[in-house]
Amino acid sequence: MKYCARCLYPANHPLKITFDKKNVCSGCYIHEEKDVLNWNSRKEKLARIFNAYRSKNSKNYDCIIPVSGARDSYFVVHTVKKEFGMHPLLVTYNKQYNTYRGIRNLAYLRTKLGCDIATFTVSPERVKKVTRATIKEFGSIYWHCIAGQTAYPVQNAVRLKIPLIIWGAHQGIDQVGMFSHTDEVEMTRKYRKEHDLMGYEAEDLLGIDNLTKKELGVFFYPNDKEIEKVGVRGIYLNNYIRWDTKKQHEKMIELYGYESALQHRTFDTYNDVDCFHYSDLHDYLKLIKYGYGKVTDHATREIRLGRLTREEGIKLVRQYQNIEPNLQKTKLFLDWLGMTEKEFWGFANKFRNSEIWEQHKKEWQLKDSVISHANDKGVEEVRISKKEKKCEFIISPARIKNYQEKQYILVGRGWIDEEKKHQESKKTIFFVIASENRVNFILRTDIFKILKEKGYRLVIISPYKNNPQFRDEFKGSNIIFEELCKAGKVADMINNLRNEKLKINHPKIKEWRIIHGQIKRRYKSQEHAIISFLKEGVKKIILGITPQKKIFWDFIEKWLVVNRCCRKLFKKYKPDVVIMASAGAGRKDASFILYAKKNKILSYAVDNNIDVFEWRYLSTPRDVSGWMLFGENQKKEAMELQRINPKKLITTGPVRYDHYLRNFKPLPRREFFQDLGLDPNKKLITYGAKIPIIYPQNADIIKSLKNISEKENNNAQLFVRFDPKHDPLQYGTLLDNIPWERGEEKSHRDHVANLLYHSDVIVSIGSTFCIEACLVNTPAIWIGFDGYKKHKNPLKSYRAVYDLDLFQRIIKTGAIPLVETLEELIKEIENYLASPEKDTAERKKMIHQEYGVADGYAGERIANYIIDQLEKETLKK
Ligand SMILES: [Zn+2]
C-alpha cells in the first residue's frame, strides 16, 4: 500500500485521496492553506453570511446547529452564539449508545450557553432492526447514528423554516483535501450519501430484513423541492475559521468544563467521549475494512498541525491501532441488539478486506500498515517542522467522580444539581513502583488506566521519577511523580532482624529456606563470608534477647522505623490507598506498609509472581488490607503456608498477563526479526539466561543450544536474553555470532510478548519466562541440570528448586517439560521444532489451573475493587 510521505494516510482512504510527485497526499496539500489564508477576512465573510440570516423580528431562530454534545459541539455553539451573537436552535439525534458523560456534556452545553434544543429519539426497537440490517449489509453499527445526525437537522430546517444550518468541519476537506477551503463547499445530499452514509441512503435499505418505509422514514433526507422552498443551506465553519480541534476543545474545557475521557483505541481524549462504541467497536470495524483506525486520523491531524513528527505519529498508531474492542462494551452492544458474538463477527469478518489482512496461527494479521512505512523514501524531503514541542491531551475533571460507565443512557438529565454534594473530596492513591517489572505489571495495566480515568489524584513513587520517557508515558493532569527513597540503615537492620525472627515454621517453607540459603551461599566471596560471620554474631546476640512475636516487631517497626522521605510523602498527600507490588518482600515497599498501617490507610499488594507464597516470603509478611491473587492455588498457599486471613485474599486473575490475553497483537515476523538481527527464514530458539549467582552454567547451555540450532535438520538460530543485572560481556567471544539482548534495555511488555510469540521454542531455568511463553502458545522447556557439571550433593544443584509444589504442579500438566540431561534437552527441542503444536492443550490447561480466570480483565477487576473500597470508606465517614 502506498502511504503519504508526510502524514499517515494510505492510498485506500475511503474519502479518496491523491498523491503528488513527492508522494504528498491531497489532504496535506490542502492543509497548507491553513497557514496561508487570511483567516480574518474569511471570518468577516462568515459574519456577512450570518447577518443575512439573522431573524428580522426575532420570531424565529436564526439558524440550526446540529450537536452531539461532544466533537466540536461546544466550539461551534460558542462561536455562533457568543462570537457572532446568533440565536441558534440546537438539534440532536439520539444515537442511543450514550455515555453518562456524554449526557452531562450535552446538558451543560445547552444550559451554560442558554440554548433551546430539539432532541429526536427513535424507538430503540426500530433502531435495532435498522442496525441489524446495516451490520449484515455493510458491516456498520453506526449507520443509523450518521443517517439520523445528517437528516434530522435538515428535516427541522424544512419543517421550522430555518434555512441556515451550521456544521463544524467538513471531513472531506480536513482529511483528504477534497476541496479547497476557498471553494466554500456546502452540505449536499450527494456527499452525505457517498461518504457519510457509506453509499447507502435510507431508501436503499428498503426491503432488507423486511425494513419498511414506515420504519426508515425518519432517516429520509427531505426532497429537493422541500429544500428549495425554504432555501436550506448548510455551511461548514472550517471554511471560515482556521480549524484546530485540539486547541478548540482546550478552550472549551477552560470556559465550560467540557468533560474529556480516555478512549480505548486512540490518544485523543476530546472527540468522542459521548459514545460507548465510536472509538471502540465502530473504529475496529473501520480497521477491518480499511486497515487503519481513528488513531491514524488523529495522528495525521496532529502531524499536519506541527505537534507530532511523522515518527511520533507512527508510534501512537503502533500503540493503539490493533487494540481489540473492549469485551464488556461489545457485550453491552450485542445484548442490546440481541445478536450473539459469533453471529456478529461472522458478519463483520465478511467485510475484512483480504488485500489488507491475512491469517497467521489462526489470528488475523494486517499485511501492511503505516507502521512499516516509517522509513519510506522521501519522508525527510517533505517533512513539516514541528511547531509545538508537546502534543498532550488532557483529562478534564469529571463532574461525577467514581461513576462507572456500564449502561447506555437513553434519556438522561445530565445536569448535576448540587455539584459539590456529588463531588467527592479528591481521593489520592499512592503507586509504589520500585522496578521496571512493576512498571509493566502495575502501571501498564488497567489498574492504573482506570484509576487515572476516574480522576483520582495518583502519586507515582518511583526511582524513574526523572526519566523523561517514563514521565511521558504516564503523565496526566491528575498524576504526580515522586522519588522512591532508600530505607536507611536502622530500618534495614530492623527489617533484617525481624525477618530472621519471624521465619515461618511451616515444614515446606523450612525446606525451601534451606534451598534458598544454598543458592545464595554458594557464590559469596570469602571476604564477604568473614564480614557476614561477624555480623551474624552480633545478630545472634540481639536475636537471642528478642521475642519471637509479631506483635513485638510490629511495635518496634511502628515506632523505630522512621523513614523521613516516606513520612514526608504521607504528610504531603494524605493518601487514601497505597498500591504496591509486594507486601514487603522488597524492602522499599515495607516502609510504605508501615506508614499506611500507622495512619490506618488502605494498602494493597499486587504481587505478580507465581511463587510469591512458596518462595518469596520465607518470613511472616507484613499486614496489608488486601492481596490481589492470581487464582485459587495461590489463595490456598497463602492460607496454608503463610496463615493469611482469607478475608484479605482477593482472587482477580493475572493482571501481569492481561496484555497477552486481550490486547497483544504481534508485529509481523519479518519486521521483528530484522530489529533483532535475526533471519526470518530460520526457526528461533530463545534462551532466557538466569544471573550467574543463581545459575553459573550459562556458558555450557549457550554452547549446547548453539550446536543444536546449527544442526542441518533443525534450520534454526539461537537468541539469548539476559536477565537484568546479568552482564553478557563476561562470556567474551562465546557470543560473537549469537544475537542477544539485555533485560534492562528491552523490558517493555510489547517487546517481550513479541519475542515469546515469534520464538519457536523457549528454554530457561525455573523462570516465569517459560510460563509466559505458554500464554502465546510457544513451546517452552525448563532446564533442570547444571550444564556439563554434576553436583554430588543434590541440594547444590539448581534442580532442587523444581521440587517446589508450584513447579511440580506445572510440570505435571505437561505444559513445560523439565529436562534433567543434555540429551533430554536436545530431544525436547527437536520435538518442538518439528511439531510446534505439540502440547498446545497442556499449555492451555496449565494457564487455567494456575491463573484462574485468565480473560485479560484482571486489572479492571482490581481497579473496581479498589474503587469499591474507597466508596465504602467515604460512606463510613
Ligand atoms: Zn498526507
Can you describe this structure?
- The protein is an alpha/beta fold and 877 residues long.
- Helix content is 45%, strand content 10%.
- The chain has 38 helices and 20 strands.
- The longest helix is centred in the middle third of the chain and has 20 residues, at 526-545.
- Bound molecules: zinc ion.
- Residues 4, 6-7, 9, 24-25, 27-28 line the site of zinc ion (ZN).
Brief sketch in words of this structure:
InterPro entries: N-acetyl_sugar_amidoTrfase, TagF_C. This protein has 877 residues and is of the alpha/beta class.
Shape call:
globular
Tell me about the largest β-sheet.
7 strands, parallel
Pairing-aware structural class of the strands and helices? alpha/beta
Q: Helical segment tally?
A: 38
What labels describe this entry?
N-acetyl_sugar_amidoTrfase, six-stranded parallel sheet, Rossmann fold, TagF_C, seven-stranded parallel sheet, 20 strands, alpha/beta, 3 domains, binds zinc ion, 877 residues
Topology:
Blueprint: H1 26-31, H2 39-53, E1 63-66, H3 73-83, E2 88-93, H4 100-112, E3 116-120, H5 124-138, H6 143-160, E4 164-167, H7 171-176, H8 189-196, H9 213-216, H10 224-230, E5 233-236, H11 245-256, H12 278-290, H13 294-304, H14 310-320, H15 327-337, H16 341-350, E6 357-360, E7 363-366, H17 379-382, H18 419-422, E8 428-432, H19 436-443, H20 446-453, E9 457-461, H21 468-474, E10 479-482, H22 489-501, H23 507-522, H24 526-545, H25 550-560, H26 564-573, E11 577-580, H27 587-598, E12 602-605, H28 612-616, E13 626-629, H29 632-642, E14 649-651, H30 658-663, H31 669-676, E15 683-689, H32 698-710, E16 716-722, E17 740-742, H33 749-758, E18 761-764, H34 768-775, E19 780-783, H35 805-813, E20 818-819, H36 822-834, H37 840-851, H38 858-876
Parallel strand pairs: 1-2, 2-3, 4-5, 8-9, 8-11, 9-10, 11-12, 12-13, 13-14, 15-16, 15-18, 16-17, 18-19, 19-20
Antiparallel strand pairs: 6-7
Helix pairs in contact: 13-14, 20-38, 22-25
Zinc ion binds at residues 4, 6-7, 9, 24-25, 27-28.
